[in-house]
Amino acid sequence: MASSTQKPHHHNLPTPYATTAAPPPTPSTSTDTRPTPTLDALSHLLHRLPPTLSLSLPTRRSSTPPLISLTDPTPPLLSAATQLGYFHLTHHHPIPGPSTESAAVSLFNLPQDQKQLIFPNNWPFGYDDDDVSAGNESFCLDPNELSGLDSGSDSGCLYEFGREMERIGLKVVEELGRAVGFENPARDEMCSQLWISDTDGMDRPGRVYPYVVGLHCQLRGCGKYSLWADSGWVNVSGRVDSVLVTLGDIAQVWSNGKFKKVRGRPVPMSLEDDNKLSSRYITMSLLITLPLESTVSPLLPGPAINNGIDEQENDEESHDISTNLMITGEERQFRSFSFEDYAWRVYHEHLLLKDPLIRYRV
């Protein structure tokens, strides 16, 4: 399994901040109450609106993801992927629970200087203390490097957890590719990241990183998760006996826009015992993603052809995922792009509400 341990180029990209729109002009204090043509037209329009129309902000909807087992002869992956972009995965092999959670908690209990020493920040891996003041901190770890970790915690539990989640995630990618009809990339063209976060459950998913599929271990006590899907914010009921699977932006590109996606990682919302926002909750997610040197393109079924990418633009040693591009007669919905540039942008610019794939749509 390839691992994206290569040190990335250090970009100096400014972080854009949205400008604040000017407030509407203050109504005049004049006592002149004579009607004007503009006011008459507005009044006429408001009176013609149906009485059931609500001008309030839309409420966040709730969703119950389908239960899917890969042991079924024909698991309904295609409908879940094209309609929602997330589902509960059941009947998988047991995943370590309490011991793994305890090992994760012990990481956050380490002194601050030890966290930074043992897990140096080498984007995207390492300890991220950017959101400590806001109640969020996280570790991004390479599961394949946890076996020899000596951090005062039971790294063996985290290693086994990461490897088991990785195995399940790769199987999900294979099944998704088979369901939608694209040729699945080789396993050595993908890598994984284990994200362990300590969150306050206030709709802050922390850092965002591109991925194919995300597997989120649903630990005891969390009743609901909040996630940002293509349809907007969604509240999803949790199931401690399953894995919550989310499809990411890379899966959407590979499917040529057929798959819905989820941006970032789900955020725990409440505890089942008191139904209140959690003051501290550990989340554990594994992302199946790509090496930094990859190129991302739609993967379409059919006879292989030259995808028209200028070979001089790509390094000869790069894992060009786009070489699997096929032709079927359907139009491409996305153009090819560098995964490293894209990953750097969404990670450092905290892109979530604005779809970062918009600039790559054809």
UniProtKB/TrEMBL annotation:
SUPFAM superfamilies: Clavaminate synthase-like (SSF51197). Residues 28-38, 54-67 have a biased composition (Low complexity). Gene3D superfamilies: B-lactam Antibiotic, Isopenicillin N Synthase, Chain. InterPro entries: IPNS-like_sf (IPR027443). Residues 1-38, 54-73 are annotated as: Disordered. This is Uncharacterized protein. It comes from Penstemon smallii.
